[in-house]
Design brief:
Length: about 90
């Protein structure tokens, strides 16, 4: 199989997790990266776009403050939230 080299900047935390995984499982980094990319690209093809959950959620300052208010709130969670969190 013909191969091609790629280069990408990743966070130190991601690099640390990558290094740890390849050490524990005895696989090569290139193999793991290619498998992860293939898996991700297949999921993007097969899963409806509105169901793909991003790995990071970016909030505006106002939205972030609303989230903090909810976290700090003394109000009990709604029954819908409790039901959602109890699903397995």
């Amino acid at each position: 199989m013909e191969t091609s080299q790629i280069s990408a900047h990743i966070s130190k935390e991601t690099k640390s997790q990558l290094d740890s995984y390849v050490t524990r499982h005895g696989v090569k980094k290139g193999f793991l990266v290619e498998e992860a990319l293939l898996h991700h690209l297949q999921a993007l093809r097969e899963i409806p776009e509105d169901l793909v959950i991003p790995s990071k959620v970016i909030l505006s300052k106002d939205s972030f403050e609303k989230v903090l208010e909810q976290i700090d709130s003394k109000e009990p969670p709604t029954s819908e939230l409790v039901e959602l969190m109890n699903q397995q």
